Queue: 2 jobs
Job 1
Amino acid sequence: MGGRLVVGELRVQEIVRGGGRVCYTVVDADCSVVAEADEFLRTCRAGTDRTYAYVLVDHLRWLRLAGLDTGSVSLEDLRHYMAALGADYPGPFGLPWWEGKRPLGTAH
């Protein structure tokens, strides 16, 4: 994690559970655990919780930026989110913002 302390925003937090098991969760700006994310991450096995935690942080940040929450997001909202990440989408968000060339995953 680079040793950089991040405070004041959603972030991934390493935690040690009973028996010394290292796990990962998502905490909010006020350092509280994001319950929905934590509930999902507790179901992950074989170290996948760290990867999923970073993906969840990105998704939760996007939800907030878009003024949505997990109860109000629609399928069309999720399509726009995936398009912003580079998925092929015939709408206004069909290209990745960091390259502007072609959707990710398109093999040529």
Note: The CA atoms of residues 84 and 93 lie 5 Å apart.
Job 2
Amino acid sequence: MDYFSLIIGLLIAGAAGIAYTLLAPGGVRKKSRTIIEDAERQSQNMLKDADVSVRQLELQRQKEFEQELKNSRDEMHQRERKLDKLDSQLEQRQIDLAKQESIVAASQSRLKIKLEQIAQIEADILDVLEKQRKQLHEVTGLSKAEATKRLLKLLEDDLADEVGSRIIKHEKKMEEVCEQQARNILTMTMQRLASEHTSNMTTSTVDIPNDEMKGRIIGREGRNIRAFEQETGIDVIIDDTPGVVIISGFDPVRREVAKVTLDKLISDGRIHPTRIEEVTKETQAEVDKIIMRKGTEALEEVNVHGLNKRIVEMLGRLHYRTSYSQNVLRHSIEVAFLSGMLAEMMGLDPDLARRAGLLHDLGKAADHEIEGGHPKVGADMLKRAGEPPEVVHAALGHHDQILVEHPYTVIVATADACSASRPGARRESLDRYVKRMEELESLAIEFNGVRRAYAVQAGREVRVVVASKDVTDEKAAKICRDIAHAYQEKLSFPGEIKVVVIRESRFTELAK
């Protein structure tokens, strides 16, 4: 409402009324005064209504402003919590990096000590030869050339077996050193990765609200289920199991399309051949988008670029593929990280190693469509896409089926074995992993004074908490040594197990 126009109108009306009152006769003047008084009352009421409306509008705007201020504060609090979480993760990564650096330094120092021992043994042999040469020269009075000749002959005859045994001994020591160094590199790489378990179930089932829905899925004379199987290429198994319909098929992508399609049809309630065809096409388009997104996300996660669009699509299809209950896409990403770390430690190109590790199982996305095993199928696809020879060969030979020609093939094969065999990666090894953790903890708890024991870092470290009142520092050191000795005698394990005994005193008081 235009309040200023209203006021001006009222003023004009009042002035006109006054003028008319002054000029009109008495009866007319009285009537005009009544009209003016009514107009004044109406104007006052309208002004009051306008004032109330303005106040209500102000209150509403004030409430909206307070709500916006509250939302801004909530958003600021959420961002602060995220920043705190990122800070804690960064600190944990720094701690892990410091641990890995200490492990590398310890390995280097051990290797340096072994090399110094070998150099000392060689120096001792040279000293013995020099002493024998001088003694022969003094006793026989032979010339240096003759003495050298006889000495060499004597050494060849008397020390032939000893030299051979020393060579074998040193070669064995070097093999042990190299094996230990390789084990340390693999252990450190797996610790740096520290990825989550990737075990998945491979059974596809669809929940239904009631058993009546089974009849609607089958349709009159089975026309609905036949139309569904024809559109999706997947078999639908309907048995006496309550509340569940089973989806069966070799193609995991088709199986996912069929599962989502059936979920939509059940939620919608309209199940007939025409609707089945429409929903299947719609779901197929959605799954195709998901496949491309999953492939792109995997490339961004491992920092690999420049792949053919077809290769990205096949990589995304691995999201729906499992191998021994392990998700193949997550397994490929894990192998890519492990390969990059191993290549970096060996002085090779980590980017190329990550690329080869990410694409090594690409053939699993199409091995049911093309004749041949997944290494050959994947290598053919990568070769046609113009990938480097190292990447093609890694896909072809990561299962040791051909002669190794590139170091990246060995790196990818090693990373593939680490990812597949680490505890928890596959369902069949999870039981053994849990049993080993329980053995480590139960064996430590058997010692007197031990309260709790925790196996951490996949069983490579055991942290033991002892009672501070019952166990002194000297007894804690003895318990630590006894637990380590018990592990050596009673358990069989690769590498080393670090035993840490913790003894602390805590005092707590409440102020009321």
Note: The CA atoms of residues 32 and 38 lie 10 Å apart.
